[in-house]
# Entry
Amino acid sequence: MDYIDVPTAKSSDGLRLILNAGVPGPWSEAAKALFVHHGVAFLPVAQKAGQANEDLVAWTGHRNAPVALWRDEPPRTRWLELVMLAEQLGEGTSLLPEERAFRIQALGWTHEIAGELGFGWCARQLIFAAWASQLSAAERKANRMFTAYDFEAFDAEDMQLRATAFLSDFARALDASSGPYLMGEKFGVADLYWAYFSNLLSPMEAARNPMSPTSRLSYEIPSTHLLNYPAVLLKHRDYMFERHLQCPLDF
# Structure
């Protein structure tokens, strides 16, 4: 992906989207896909994972990604804020069910994927735990990502149990659906988010996900703790990329 620098982004109009550069961070990949789905053009701005990103902090107040900046409105960082902004600015088919009960269900599942203590959160903590086992106490304390996500406050076994329970429940919901999508016959927000977050369970092959070997090793860590997951989880992911999502990933 061709990124613009911060000075250029600050002086530009339209939507600016700060994204993980060089790695397929699922929060960033899903954010991009939201706006692509709705036909919303954006200017990509690079965020470097694990680094200080002082220029981004000075501009937005945030070190991490994704961050969406629209006109002079406050920066948006949460997955739901990004979903609603894409729905507001874009066109085409909504990713949210019209009926309130189904909309609540779709957003609830997306939170279980991308929200705090959701699948992505738990998988990230499992990766951190593997990294931490190879670091000294001083090195762990100095790690920006450990600090930002309060790594020391979470127990790896609990993260494993939470992630395993999610995979079981989500697979059951997919099996119970009346169609190829979570909510039946219509592609929705949870389908989109799971397609990208599933790379924390089993990264797609290099032809579809051209990540570095080092990053791939990290993304494969959660699966060593989440054994014997239902096949429907990756079957669903593959169908989403075949029908709806851009491939190969471009980060």
About this structure: The mean pLDDT is 95. The chain has twelve helices and three strands.
